[in-house]
Amino acid sequence: MRISSSENAKPTPLRAIRNPTGRRSFLKWTGVAAAALVAGCDDNETRTLTEVLPAPPPDTLPDPGQRLVNLGSGDVGILNYAYALEQLEAAYYTMVVSSSGFTSTFSAEEQRVLIDLRDHEIVHREFLKAALADNAIPGLTPNFGMVDFGSRESVLQTAMAFEDLGVTAYNGAGPLLTNPDFLAAAGKIASVEARHASAIRDLLREGEDDRFFAGDDFVNPKLGLSPARSPGEVLQIADPFIMENFDTRNLPSASIVPVEEWLNL
Amino acid sequence: MNEQPILETLDPEVGERIVSRRAALQASGKWGFGLALASVPVALAVSARSAFADHLPQQVLDVLNFALTLEFLEAEYYNTGLAAPGLIQDREVFSQISKHENSHVALLQAVLGGDAIAKPQFDFTAGGKFPDVFSNYATFVTLAQGFEDTGVRAFKGQAPKLIDADFILTVALQIHAVEALHASKVRRLSTSPAQKGWITFDDTAVPALEPIYAGEAQTTQLMIEVPSLLPDFVSDPAAATSEAFDEPLTMQQVLEIVDQFIVGDVDGDGDES
Question: Looking at the whole model, is its pTM more than 0.90?
Answer without folding.
Answer: no
